[in-house]
Structure formats: structure tokens, C-alpha cells
Specification:
By secondary structure, this protein is α+β, with helices and mostly antiparallel strands. The protein contains seven helices and eleven strands. It has a nine-stranded mixed barrel with strand order 1-2-3-4-5-6-9-10-11. It has a two-stranded antiparallel ribbon with strand order 7-8. A hairpin with a 2-residue loop joins β5 and β6.
């Protein structure tokens, strides 16, 4: 073979390799980088925290409702709970994250995607190499076991083996039987992170949470220091709680916001617009002491 012909063959091979690599790369969207949380949505729920007795719009069942009704916020003051990390399905509610890829050095195939979350410095691994999930009796953790794949430009993640967690910071629980589906969608410098929780133990229907992030070239994820201390001296083994039917704070949310107590207790039907017809027929709680029967802001006037 002449040198000119050999050069053309080599050049053609190099071009094919380049095109092949470009084609493979175009089948997915790189999520790597530091992403800053956008708090323009659900600020009261994500930062100050939801009020006790505010379960409207959540598909919790009777068992989860009972758990929420008996929950005491003082639980968080226990040393065992002070540094308890957020589970992976709740972690996207606030704080920045760093995402990076792990690739095989030789083949450059994507092995895993890692996410570091500022709060409590948690890190999770999303396996992208097709490995199976472990058996049901394997260890359950706050991060769970996650596998992912790209559906076009959407990263879809399946997670199981989660330890018990929560959907909201007011006693709404999530069981260790739950499975989670996540969708990561990147539009330029905007990342949409959707979490769908399927929990046959505590939910009547799937629970969906959407969060938005902005790509950042300035933010860095710093260390998160947490040290447990004795904040309140209590008898050994005491766990703060409210006995069934004896939570004195349970109705404050409904009273202060003039929302029917039944509606504030949530359930799948409270998620849908059709529930407005139901809620208008429900009795309002008595007005807060000293305020009289004022306008009900939820409905734009008295009923």
C-alpha cells in the first residue's frame, strides 16, 4: 500500500473513531458540576419548615397520619437525631450539590454518577453500569441503592433499600418499604430534579416533589460540621411524642389559616382540584382567640 493511501486509511479510521465518540456522547447530557438550589418554589416548606398539622395535598394514609399526629418536634433535640442525615429522596429540598462522573479508565464507559450534598455532607452513588439491585434483605441506608440510565437526555434513577425517612419535617413519615424514581433534566444551566416516592406502607398514591437548581461556577461545597450534644436533660430512654388524641398543637395550623381541619389532615383526594368542591362543604374551625369571625383568605370571603 502506498504511503498516500495508508495516510488516507489512517485518517479515515481516526475520523470514524472521532465520530463514534461524538455519537456516543450525544446520547446523554452531562450533569457534572456544582448546582445551587433555587428556593423560589416552596420556600416555607424547605427552609423555615412546615407547620404542625399541615398535611393537606399529601397522599398519606391513616397509618402515616397517625404517625404525624403523635410526632413531637422535640424529637430533633435528641443527640441521636441532631446529626441524622437527610435521606436521598428528601435531600433535594434544600442546599447545594456537587455532581460528578466515574468512568472506566480504559473504555471510558460511564460506571457511576456521584452526588455530594452540602447538608450533613452525604454522598450517594448512582450505578450506571447495569448491575442488579441487591436482594431485599440487604442493608437499608439513608442513601439507598440506586441505578440509573439515560432516556434520551433525561437521567432516570431507581432507588430501593432505603432506611425509614420522611416526606416533610412535621412528622409525615416514609417507610423502609418505599421505592423511589428520580428524573434529572438539564436545560443549559438549569437542572430540574423530580422525585417520585412509591410507599405502599404510608401512602395512598405516589408522592411527587420537583426542585430546581442553577449551575454555578462560583459556589463551592464546604464541609458540614455536626456534633451531637445534650440539649435537654431527659430521663434515660425517653422519646418525645404526643399520645394519640392528646397533641395540643395539632389544630393550630387549621385555626390560624381558617382551613377545615379535615382538609388539613391530607389524603390523596386533597391533591386534586376537584377537592375544592368538597372543602367548601366542610365546617371551618373556630377563629383564633380574640380575632372574631374574620374573612377566610382560602376562599376569598366568608361562606
Amino acid at each position: 500500500m502506498k504511503m498516500g493511501e495508508l495516510g488516507r486509511v489512517v485518517g479515515l479510521g481516526a475520523l470514524c473513531a472521532l465520530l463514534w465518540g461524538t455519537h456516543s456522547a450525544s446520547a446523554y447530557t452531562n450533569m457534572s458540576g456544582v448546582w445551587a438550589a433555587d428556593y423560589g418554589e416552596d420556600w416555607p416548606d424547605r427552609i423555615p419548615g412546615p407547620e404542625l398539622g399541615d398535611y393537606g395535598g399529601l397522599p398519606l394514609n391513616d397509618a402515616d397520619r397517625l404517625h404525624a399526629k403523635t410526632w413531637d418536634a422535640s424529637l430533633i433535640s435528641l443527640p441521636a437525631y441532631q446529626c441524622r442525615v437527610h435521606p436521598s429522596d428528601y435531600a433535594n429540598s434544600f442546599a447545594d450539590v456537587r455532581i460528578w462522573e466515574e468512568r472506566d479508565r480504559t473504555s471510558q464507559k460511564l460506571v457511576a454518577i456521584h452526588i455530594h450534598h452540602f447538608a450533613w455532607s452525604t454522598e450517594r452513588t448512582i450505578w450506571m453500569d447495569g448491575r442488579p439491585h441487591p436482594p431485599s434483605y440487604a442493608l437499608h441506608t439513608a442513601m439507598g441503592f440506586s441505578t440509573g440510565k439515560y432516556d434520551g437526555h433525561i437521567l432516570t434513577v431507581k432507588t430501593d433499600h432505603l432506611s425509614e425517612g420522611w416526606l416533610r419535617r412535621n412528622g409525615v413519615d416514609r417507610s423502609d418499604k418505599a421505592t423511589v424514581t428520580e428524573h434529572f433534566v438539564r436545560h443549559g444551566n438549569h437542572l430540574i430534579w423530580t422525585v417520585i416516592v412509591h410507599d405502599p406502607t404510608y401512602l395512598e398514591e405516589d408522592f411527587v416533589r420537583n426542585r430546581d437548581y442553577k449551575y454555578s461556577t462560583k459556589n463551592q461545597i464546604g464541609p458540614y460540621a455536626c456534633e451531637s450534644v445534650v440539649e435537654v436533660v431527659r430521663p434515660k430512654g425517653y422519646i418525645p411524642n404526643h399520645f394519640m388524641g392528646h397533641n395540643p398543637f395539632l389544630k393550630e395550623y387549621a385555626v390560624n389559616h381558617r382551613i377545615p381541619f379535615e382538609a388539613a389532615m391530607g389524603g390523596a383526594e386533597t391533591m386534586y382540584p376537584e377537592y375544592m368542591k368538597v372543602i367548601r362543604a366542610l365546617p371551618l374551625p373556630p377563629p383564633p382567640k380574640g380575632k372574631g369571625d374574620t374573612t377566610n383568605s382560602l376562599f376569598g370571603g366568608r361562606r
